[in-house]
Amino acid sequence: MNPRTHTSVALCLLFVSSVACGRSPIEPDPVVLSQQYVFACGRWSPEEPPAGTALVDLRIHDQTVDGRPTPEAIGAITAAGGRIAHVYNVPIVRAEMDLHRAASLVDLARGPASYAKTVTAPAVFDVDIIAILSHPLTEADLENVRALGGTIKFEYQTLPGYAARVSDRIVPAIRALAGVKSLEGDGIACLF
């Protein structure tokens, strides 16, 4: 194979592999901020982020039967210029996008998202969950979550269940545990 053909084949393979993986060979890496900023309740906290574009996790209002974000919410993020990086097993979508547009998607009454958080660790896909059980909470319930790699944050007694921080990849396994009646992504509530 002559050198010119070899170079053309290599460039073609680079382009095809990058498109298949969802990234163009000329796209820059997503902007990752060293401090987390949250847009909720109509404002950024602790202050407005210093960047115009960044990687954000958007908590979605609506979810599918299996607890994931709806196609309509994902479409709204894409329509706002977001490039989807990850769709969680709870109603959260990670996208790279303009932060003003991310904030415009956050509206408790009309928008698809209830809050947006900038991402400080792009390779980490941990989520906070609340699991409600069909029976009184037992140590075995908590141990099952720990055995899967989760960390228990709080034990509920009035409503039998728990709050935990888990990797997104184990959410389906937790949903399938005996006695798990419902599982939701924990979130931010605004008091108006």
- How many angstroms does the end-to-end distance come to? 69 Å
Helix fraction, binned, reads 10-25%
Q: Please give the order of strands in the largest beta sheet.
A: 2-1-6-3-5-4
Apparent shape: elongated
Question: Average pLDDT, to the nearest integer?
Answer: 87
Whole-number total of structural domains: 2
- Which structural class is indicated by helix and strand composition? alpha+beta
| SSE series | HEEEHEEHEEHEEHE
Radius of gyration: 20 Å
The major beta sheet can be summarized as: 6 strands, antiparallel
> How many DSSP H or I helices?
5
**Contiguous uncertain segments of 5+ residues:** 3-26
Percent in strands: 25-35%
- Strand elements, count: 10
Describe it for me?
- The protein is of the alpha+beta class and 192 residues long.
- The protein folds into 2 domains: 38-118; 126-185, Peptidase S8 propeptide/proteinase inhibitor I9 (Alpha-Beta Plaits, 2-Layer Sandwich), CATH 3.30.70.
- Helix content is 24%, strand content 31%.
- It has a 6-stranded antiparallel β-sheet. It has a 4-stranded antiparallel β-sheet with strand order 8-9-7-10.
- β8 (151-156) and β9 form a beta hairpin.
- The radius of gyration is 20 Å and the shape is elongated.
- The model is unreliable at 3-26 (pLDDT under 50).
